[in-house]
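Hi support team,

I'm opening this ticket because the web form for multi-chain structure prediction keeps timing out on my end. I have pasted the exact lines I submitted so you can reproduce it. The total is 414 residues across two entries, so I didn't expect it to be a heavy job. Is there a limit I'm missing, or should I split the entries? Thanks in advance, R.K.
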Amino acid sequence: MSKCEQQVSTSPSVLLFDHDPTSQAQFSQWFAELGWQLHSVGTRDQCLRAVDSRDFDIIITELTLGEMMIQSLRRVKPGQAVIAITSIGSVDEIVETLRSGATDVLQRPLTIQQVQAAVDRVLEVSRSTDRGYRRISRFVSEESVQYQATAGELVGFTVPLLPIEQLREAGRIDRNTKLRIQLAFQEALTNSIEHGALELLSPWKEELDGDGVDRYTRELRKRALDPSYASRNVCIGVQINKERLVIRISHEGVGFNSQIPLPRHGDLQSLAPYGRGIRIIYGTMDSVQFSDGGKCIEMIKYLQNSGGVNGA
Amino acid sequence: MEFPTEIQGEKGYITVSSDLDSEQSGEALRKAFNQVYDQGKRTIVLDLSQVQIINSYGIGKVLMCYKRLKSDNGVLMVKPLQGFVKETFELLMLDKILPTDQ
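Hello R.K., no limit was hit. The queue was backed up. Here is the completed structure from your submission:
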């Protein structure tokens, strides 16, 4: 759910999930000083019931309670901002925590200033756009990034592409190229998730019910919660070097049929509501290759070449 | 999420006030379109000046509006496009079928 769709007040609504009564008391004191709302729970069931019953701007969870908790939260509220707290804090653990879906990670011992800064930071990102774009820039390598998540966790979630942000900030690509690469990436990811893992069929977009909702949307909502589809893994890899940006996405499920006819130039009579995603991909990237029976796509953008596969 | 609509003479106007890349925005467009359509307007203009990102999902929703109007001898128009949205429309040749309302 997009947090920007709410009438967000300046006081964030925060849920704390922590077994330790001492830690709960400490956070309660801090939040009282900050004038912020805090709802505390001590068990997993209490946490999931609280999340299900109302919306929170942020959930703060103790990491020792398990990555599965973050993944469970994502299933209930895709896109939910989560701050994980850890006492160990190796780089590997922090990266893994971020991969599991946390928006930010804090290491104990904490101060009120650190908690306030983290909440402000996460809120700023959550509220910055209607898509709830999230950054994990502090802990991810500048040259490559790897994600793995289930299809159910990724539905409705915008995966950040930090290497592309850094290319833009370094002036190696302009704003529009950045947006087009992000869009091509998101289209390819959507194909993997929706057509590959969730096995949704494009013609369903034209089958409307009495309320004007198409079958594709109805099935998307159902299968995003159906473990037989939603538990399938989707893997994303992004690498950059001096010459090229490489994006690979692979998924469990059915393969994409890369042999289907693409909308041709001038083929304006074919206005089916599908096929444009792949055209956006081909029109943006310099190389597009499918493998593993269509379950893996590799897209390359040469950083000295701004044209697409079709020279668009 | 709701998109503002306005009637000016024979035309209905819809201001798309967010990115068109999600179910929420697609649903908002559908409702705004129905609101104007149900008032009998068959020339409908989309103002996409506030849209930064439009993906295939959003384009699909725009084209559903186009097809519904076309089947009723109506016209879907757009306010002058710019930036990334303009590039995307040109890539998909949608600028050939959606006239501009100046």
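A quick check on our side: The CA atoms of residues 45 and 198 of chain A lie 28 Å apart. Let us know if the file doesn't open in your viewer.
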